[in-house]
């Protein structure tokens, strides 16, 4: 009987140097961050018209798959390779996750690199999912997937390297960005504005009387995001420690106050307590907590929530001023919220909170620690991140759009039909089959004798009291309509059709 051979050990893979509690906490936190991806999908789906509801779910989930491949392929090494010294972007030392084992991670000695790479990958997945809101209602999904691969490579990875890389210029300069005010929030929000600018505005008729088609999905998506955000921010302490607890508490407070302030501002103008308003404010508070939650005291997060809820609400007017059709308000929610959190770090960042993870004992806070220079550092970081993101995103989008077969935007006819039908042939709510079988013809009602009447509009099935096809539909011939919709002679048949 031969003895079992000893396994060859890889240098730095000694698991005993890590706490099992820290490892377990970050694995669970990473799973919670993943849960934000379907949360985003439901949020975007609910905010769109029903004819585009599935397209946004598909785009968010598919971008998640693209990012997983990109991160494994070269995303992680471009963002976090410890041997890169240029301060801007990493090298290919860890290409394909090579040499990523059990050594202490670049972000914290509390967890190994292989776990850190997984956790940071989920951040990239969420960022890409947020950015997919830029294609709302007129963007084609295949070019968007090509775009997101290059965007992750040329925009997100450099931004992550700046803020969190061992030799990133922002980190070494003393910029305070806890969980991604720059890479995640400004990155997705400003990029969403740039992508929407390249795509162009929706047709004017698509902008008239626009309302979310399913507010229940908006609320569900927001709740899923709120849950996942606790792992997003809490896990950024990289261990089951007191700093993580404060990050979670700060996230809860900022979200609650952001939601209340946004809702109050909407009530002032509309005299309605809107669900979409409360959800929007909640997300704005969570966005602002992303860069700040691991640096500030809980009382400071009340200020963070109030300011983010108010300023993000006002920022929804920016898209009208610059004439960019940012359909889902990515800039107002994510870019402005991220900027609010980053700037407030300069005022409220405190080493008392920062040092609670047991390893960040040399990081300076803000004004709370008489670090007056932190304000201009935070402002410069915000300006650099915004400018780089907008310019490079627009160039990537323009470049992809110029490739034959990869034009980013669908045509006017496709936009009118909806991305679900044109791009997928499936529907979040399968109303389209009823329209084909019944309401694709001119408006149809029945008189008391169940005779055909094609002149009065239907009231059922649409929030505006009529179908979304015009009475004067010139796209189909009269002969085709008669063939597709034979006369109804029997009362039972009429009831079946209704």
UniProtKB/TrEMBL annotation:
UniProt xrefs under Gene3D superfamilies: Ammonium transporter AmtB like domains
Keyword list (alphabetical) reads: Ammonia transport, Membrane, Transmembrane, Transmembrane helix, Transport
Q: Name one Pfam family in it.
A: Ammonium_transp
Positions of transmembrane segments = 23-44, 56-74, 114-132, 144-166, 178-200, 212-232, 244-265, 272-290, 335-356, 376-397
> Which segments of the protein form a coiled coil according to its record?
none
Annotated GO molecular function terms are:
ammonium channel activity
Family statement = Belongs to the ammonia transporter channel (TC 1.A.11.2) family.
Q: Where in the cell is it found?
A: Cell membrane; Membrane
GO cellular component, as recorded:
plasma membrane
InterPro entries per UniProt:
Ammonium/urea_transptr, Ammonium_transpt, Ammonium_transpt_CS, NH4_transpt_AmtB-like_dom
Name this protein carries in UniProt? Ammonium transporter
Q: Where is this region: Disordered?
A: 455-498
Residue ranges annotated as compositionally biased, kind Basic and acidic residues, are 475-488
Q: Where is the Ammonium transporter AmtB-like domain?
A: 25-428
Q: Which PANTHER family match?
A: AMMONIUM TRANSPORTER MEP1-RELATED (PTHR43029:SF4), AMMONIUM TRANSPORTER MEP2 (PTHR43029)
Membrane disposition: Multi-pass membrane protein
């Amino acid at each position: 009987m031969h003895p079992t051979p000893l396994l060859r050990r890889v240098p730095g893979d000694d698991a005993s140097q890590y706490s099992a509690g820290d490892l377990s906490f970050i694995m669970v936190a990473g799973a919670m961050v993943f849960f934000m991806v379907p949360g985003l999908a439901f949020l975007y789906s609910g905010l769109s018209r029903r004819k585009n509801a599935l397209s946004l779910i598909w785009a968010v989930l598919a971008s998640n798959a693209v990012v997983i491949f990109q991160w494994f392929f070269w995303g992680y090494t471009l963002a976090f390779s410890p041997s890169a010294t240029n301060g801007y972007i990493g090298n290919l030392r860890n290409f394909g996750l090579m040499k990523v084992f059990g050594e202490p991670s670049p972000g914290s000695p509390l967890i190994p690199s292989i776990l850190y790479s997984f956790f940071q990958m989920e951040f990239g997945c969420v960022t890409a999912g947020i950015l997919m809101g830029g294609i709302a209602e007129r963007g084609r999904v295949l070019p968007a997937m090509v775009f997101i691969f290059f965007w992750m490579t040329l925009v997100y990875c450099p931004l992550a390297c700046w803020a969190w890389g061992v030799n990133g210029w922002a980190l070494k300069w003393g910029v305070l960005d806890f969980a991604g005010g720059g890479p995640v929030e400004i990155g997705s929000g400003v990029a969403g504005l740039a992508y929407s600018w390249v795509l162009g505005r929706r047709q004017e008729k698509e902008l008239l009387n626009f309302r979310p088609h399913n507010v229940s999905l908006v609320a569900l998506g927001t709740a899923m995001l709120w849950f996942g955000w606790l792992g997003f921010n809490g896990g950024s302490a990289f261990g089951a420690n007191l700093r993580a607890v404060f990050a979670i508490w700060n996230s809860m407070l900022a979200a609650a106050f952001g939601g209340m302030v946004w809702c109050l501002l909407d009530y002032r103008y509309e005299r309605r307590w809107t669900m979409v308003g409360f959800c929007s404010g909640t997300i704005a508070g969570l966005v602002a907590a992303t860069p700040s939650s691991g640096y500030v005291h809980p009382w400071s997060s009340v200020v963070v929530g109030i300011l983010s809820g108010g300023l993000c609400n006002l920022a929804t007017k920016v898209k009208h001023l610059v004439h960019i059709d940012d359909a889902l308000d990515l800039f107002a929610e994510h870019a402005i919220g991220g900027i609010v959190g980053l700037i407030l770090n300069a005022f409220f960042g405190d080493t008392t909170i920062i040092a609670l993870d047991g390893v960040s004992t040399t990081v300076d806070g803000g004004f709370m620690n008489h670090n007056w220079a932190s304000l201009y550092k935070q402002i410069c970081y915000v300006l650099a991140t915004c400018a780089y993101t907008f310019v490079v995103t627009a160039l990537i989008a323009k470049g992809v759009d110029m490739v034959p077969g990869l034009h980013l935007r669908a045509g006017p006819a496709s936009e009118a039909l909806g991305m679900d039908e044109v791009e997928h042939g499936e529907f979040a709510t399968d109303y389209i089959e009823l329209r084909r079988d019944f309401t694709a013809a001119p408006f149809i009602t029945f008189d008391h004798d169940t005779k055909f009447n094609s002149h009065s509009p239907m009231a059922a099935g649409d929030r505006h009291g009529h179908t979304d096809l015009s009475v004067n539909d010139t796209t189909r011939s009269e002969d085709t309509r008669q063939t597709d919709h034979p006369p109804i002679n029997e009362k039972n048949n009429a009831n079946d059709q209704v």
